[in-house]
Amino acid sequence: MDQRTPFQISETQGRGDGPVRVAARVTGFTLAPAALVGAMLVGLKAGEVNWPLPAWLPAPVAGLLVRDGAGPAPDAPILYYRDPDGKAAYTLAPAKAPDGRDYRPVRFNEDVGFEPKPAEPAGGDAGMAQTGAKKLLYYRNPMGLPDTSATPKKDSMGMDYIPVYAGEAEDGNTVRISPGKVQRTGVRSEPVERRVISRPVRVPGTVTLDERRVTIVATRSDAYVDHVENVTTGDQVRKGQPLVDVYSPEINAAAAQLIANPGFDGSRRRLQNLNVPAEVIAEMERTRKVPMAITWSSPRDGVILQRTAIEGMKAAAGETLFRIGDISVMWVLADVPEYDLGSVKVGQPVAVHVRSLPGRTFAGKVALIYPQVNTQTRTTRVRIELPNPDGVLLADMYADVEIGTGATKPVVAVPNDAIIDTGARQVVLIDKGEGRFEPREVKVGARGEGYTEIRDGVKAGEQVVTAANFLIDAESNLKAALQSMATPTPPAPQAQGEEKPR
């Protein structure tokens, strides 16, 4: 038959247990015998169906078909050559292994697969020693069911049981997966590295004044406001800048005693108790005169937060005339949820973003964690101190607070996806290369920015699986179960004279 003879293939499978009928007729296109056989065998595994070959089928084509699992026809076309030991090495042309053995030809109608298969020894233990093949332990169910067999067999769906070799059980904790399956399931690995684990706590906050930088200007005796300087709420003032002149009969009486009795220390002490400024007392002693009104000055640099002094008013003792605040340093009070409170520490860096100043970040530190939890909001107030040299931070501004919690030094860390958390324990899969994976229990620490601290179990430089690790973990659990069933536990020795159970 000319291998260029044009054919068109159509096939009809009989109902029930009937044979598969194949018909062909000449059409206007060319089909090589290999393509003809491939079209006839689509979806069918050679050797599993009785094929009553039609009489019209040419002998060269019929010789390519396999009958009743008789094996590949010796004259079937060679598709490729594979490693004699079953490794994942393939060539299109004849080749030799490093030890000089020829690659094995894989013919057209053989079961084509790209999973590495162990080499079949030439015979007995000697052949096994020559080829380096591994000892077959048992066969396991292809669907993962807890069923093993000492001999080859098929399951209820006709699928072959999977052989398990001694090399695969060399380590009870190691799982071996073929490179083909590793690629198909999308297994990915990443190296374990040392990195800083940071998990920012983001909470809202409010800008407030530093309570330690607020001062009240008031008299300690009844007085009358004689004159107020041209300053008002919001004005910046400097330390020592005059604010108000007040007349106090009690202050004038004490000043008169000081001038009349210059050596009498009690008069000077009385003026100090009435909060008369030291420079005013010195001026009285120098001029030997009692001023009609006493000038009160600003006790610090800052902003006038409140002015209540009005010319001509009577101010009772202790009444506030001015309230002055230093805004060079501001507080931000943030409410941290109770479940995040354990990771917040005094001294941690804080980034503050004020909503009225977009694009600008203020850096500070946690200064204090208040010792109380709000019973309604279940939050705890945290105080952050921020420098405010240009005065743009104002009291009662809203702010977004980001507290940098976590370790400040690099620690061993793995991606979050690498950890399999069962609730009772945490496991990672170590990629040992060549399709070998080891499940390993670990102790985890802080989490942040997609990584988890590993306090025990792995070390920097090892490879951990970050994708498809649940599939490998299932394979590991299945292997452990199968090994326990494949190795029966010997019965306990029976005591002498003990009666056997019926």
Automatic annotation (TrEMBL):
Record-annotated membrane-spanning stretches: none
Source organism: Methylobacterium komagatae
Domain CzcB-like C-terminal circularly permuted SH3-like positions: 412-472
A family per Pfam: CzcB_C
Organism domain of life: Bacteria
Keywords tagged on the record: Transport
Sequence ranges assigned to domain CusB-like barrel-sandwich hybrid in this UniProt record: 214-324
Domain annotation CusB-like beta-barrel: ranges: 330-405
UniProt KW Transport keyword: yes
Record region (Disordered): 482-502
Stored NCBIfam families: RND_mfp (TIGR01730)
Gene3D superfamilies, per database record: 2.40.30.170, 2.40.420.20, 2.40.50.100
UniProt-recorded name of the protein: Efflux RND transporter periplasmic adaptor subunit
The family this protein is said to belong to: Belongs to the membrane fusion protein (MFP) (TC 8.A.1) family.
